Amino acid sequence: MSEQPASAPASFLAPVTLAGRHVILEPLSTGHIPGLVEAVHDGELWNTWYTRIPTPSGMAAEVEARLARHTAGTMVPFALRRTDTGAVCGMTTYMNIRTEHRRLEIGSTWLAASAQRTMINTEAKLLLLTRAFEDLDCIAVEFRTHWHNHPSRAAIARLGAKQDGVLRNQDLWTDGTLRDVVVFSIIESEWPTVRLALSSKLAGKLRRS
To answer: Where is the N-acetyltransferase domain (predicted)?
Structure first.
């Protein structure tokens, strides 16, 4: 975690590296593309109908799009790297950044099948939330997912986020279907309890997410 003066929140758009015992979140770059192509093959994730995970052939375009959103000031993209093997295992972002309201969303996340249901996701979320609340001084962090993405909904709830509601017909999907979006959030006053719960999971005191 980068050190910042106590009196001033860090820049929301700063490309920082967040390192833990199980995973390192690196600022996304085009150099990550080969590793991401290999990671997305692990489970053939692009075939999951209720998610928007890039195909191997579309990975370069997806990385470029995320980098363009960073330049535009709306996203901070990361590549996730396992510490045990050194392999790139997915992507995540800060997105829908609203600096003036001290809010952002953690989303556009995917993990290789072999990295799912491990400490990697728990630690990545802890690193992202710690920066959001303690470095960026956020008052709320959102999570959004497809109504039919029940594994994602359950994983978000296990983080300690609370469901705010459902946005009906929020997105038009690539196959022409309409997506209902489930919105969760963690607010500033809840962060100490959420941090304790996630830290306990990483210490092996609770079941993994």
So the answer is: 23-162
